[in-house]
């Protein structure tokens, strides 16, 4: 009996030991799994899940969408970055029009050579430094800045082009001296190119880039997503008219549509994941801390009209009282429409219809109103971000950008009525 009891106790103790050993092993394994999983997640978050190989290039889109492609390549979005070829550079290289002078002793000449285009620094008439134009940023509507390669990093050139003055200018935000070391981070580049392959280690800034993995311009794939699989499928399946492996904005929610624009027109948004990992259809809030605005700042015009169009739009009654309004309600991203106030006015009047409380109260004919709602309710304002120094001018000259805070501006209304009555 005692032997049986002793055996039973031994069995129970062994069972407990084995059970505890099993639990301990599981805990160790889980800790290991968590550690591995954490590393995997870190890798996933710091390494782009979007690679250069997934893109087809917008020229491939022309095969099936030629009309849209031909119109899109005329837009400011498409032209917001291009290789530094003569057809894309706005400024002049002709003697007499090719110089930016800091003072009588220091100047930069823009020079055209067989090997490319250069900004050449001269001090007391002696050549000190020369930089090759490699990339053009900016469509030229307001101006352009230029980038040059230094090994695998990109830097902004000291001289830009300011369209309003039709002259070379000091680059925006640069001191009144030659500065050669302003690096271009991936977050800067993210708004001017569709994709840039980053070759440096995750988290290192300024980043290094693959020279041959830059897709210039904000083109088709910036808004519709990488299209290599889409092109491959439809090249093989020409009778299948249902679009595959591509993002159609009509299938996205309002916020998803807005997110695509907020990426570059949303003010001071700070990335929480690496640049170029966000793609259309995803939630931008998973990749960035989104900027917020106070109405006081908007009304006091302390929000720059260039950098945060969405913030201004979001503060407008038009946007707040609508459940469907997005940037594309007013803008057709496939066509160059800048300056066509009648087109934009007609889009305003698709919601603000005659006979309703939200229609214009001015005693003007419908024909007059349909030509230009825009100058009254979205006037051009000076940009704090786009202001440049010009030779002989003590105060930086600002570019004028149309405000996206849709509101009533009495002074602008008065100007418009005066112009109509002339």
Strands, total number: 16
Largest sheet: 6 strands, antiparallel
Shape: globular
Unreliable residue runs: 12-48
Radius of gyration over all CA atoms, rounded: 29 Å
Span between termini: 120 Å
Which percent bin holds the helix content? Answer: 25-40%
The tally of helices reads: 14
Determine the structural class based on helices, strands and strand pairing.
Answer: alpha+beta
Mean pLDDT: 87
Tell me the strand percentage band: 15-25%
- One letter per element, helices H and strands E, the order comes to HHHEEEEEEEEEEHEEHHHEEHHHHHHEEH
Characterization of the model:
It is a single chain. The protein has helices at 2-46, 58-61, 66-72, 186-189, 220-224, 228-236, 254-265, 295-299, 309-314, 317-320, 341-348, 366-371, 374-377, 410-421; strands spanning 81-83, 99-103, 106-113, 116-123, 126-132, 135-137, 143-150, 153-156, 159-162, 167-170, 193-198, 209-216, 270-271, 288-289, 380-388, 397-402. The protein is globular and about 70 Å long. The strands form 5 sheets. Strands 1, 6, 7, 8, 9 and 10 form a 6-stranded antiparallel beta sheet that branches. The chain has a 4-stranded antiparallel beta sheet with strand order 2-3-4-5, with no helix packed on it. Strands 11-12 form a two-stranded antiparallel ribbon. 31% of the residues lie in helices and 21% in strands. The longest helix is centred in the first third of the chain and has 45 residues, at 2-46. The model is unreliable at 12-48 (pLDDT under 50). With 422 residues, it is an alpha+beta fold. A hairpin with a 2-residue loop joins β2 and β3. The chain contains 14 helices and 16 strands. It starts with a helix and ends with a helix.
């Amino acid at each position: 009996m005692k032997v049986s009891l002793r055996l039973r106790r031994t069995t129970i103790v062994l069972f407990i030991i084995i059970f505890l050993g099993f639990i301990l092993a599981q805990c160790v394994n889980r800790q290991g799994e968590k550690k591995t999983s954490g590393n995997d997640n870190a890798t996933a978050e710091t390494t782009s899940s979007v690679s250069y190989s997934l893109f087809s290039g917008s020229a491939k889109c022309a095969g099936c969408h030629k009309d849209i492609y031909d119109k899109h390549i005329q837009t400011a979005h498409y032209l917001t970055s291009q290789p530094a070829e003569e057809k894309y550079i706005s400024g002049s290289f002709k003697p007499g029009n090719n110089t930016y002078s800091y003072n009588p002793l220091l100047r930069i000449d823009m020079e055209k050579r067989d090997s490319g285009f250069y900004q050449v620094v001269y001090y007391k008439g002696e050549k000190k430094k020369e930089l090759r134009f490699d990339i053009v940023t900016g469509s030229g509507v307001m101006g352009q800045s230029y980038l040059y390669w230094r090994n695998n990093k990109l830097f902004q050139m000291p001289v830009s082009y300011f369209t309003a003055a039709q002259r070379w200018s000091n680059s925006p935000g640069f001191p009144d001296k030659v500065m050669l070391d302003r690096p271009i981070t991936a977050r800067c580049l993210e708004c001017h190119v569709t994709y840039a392959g980053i070759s440096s280690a995750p988290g290192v800034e300024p980043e290094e880039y693959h020279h041959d993995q830059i897709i210039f311009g904000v083109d088709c794939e910036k808004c519709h997503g990488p299209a290599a699989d889409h092109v491959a499928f439809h090249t093989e399946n020409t009778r299948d008219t249902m679009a595959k492996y591509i993002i159609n904005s009509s299938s996205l929610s309002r916020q998803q549509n807005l997110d695509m624009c907020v990426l570059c027109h949303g003010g001071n948004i700070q990335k929480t994941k690496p640049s170029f990992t966000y793609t259309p259809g995803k939630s931008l809030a998973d990749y960035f801390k989104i900027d917020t605005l106070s109405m006081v700042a908007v009304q006091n015009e302390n929000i720059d009209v260039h950098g945060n169009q969405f913030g201004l739009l979001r503060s407008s009654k038009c946007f707040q009282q609508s459940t469907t309004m997005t940037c594309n309600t007013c803008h057709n991203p496939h066509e160059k429409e800048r300056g066509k106030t009648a087109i934009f006015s007609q889009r305003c009047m698709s919601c603000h219809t005659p006979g309703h409380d939200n229609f214009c109260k001015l005693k003007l004919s419908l024909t007059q109103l349909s030509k230009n709602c825009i100058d009254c309710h979205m006037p051009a304002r000076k940009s704090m971000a786009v202001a440049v120094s010009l030779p002989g001018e003590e105060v930086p000259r600002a570019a004028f950008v149309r405000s996206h805070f849709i509101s009533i501006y009495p002074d602008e209304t008065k100007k418009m009525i005066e112009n109509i009555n002339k």
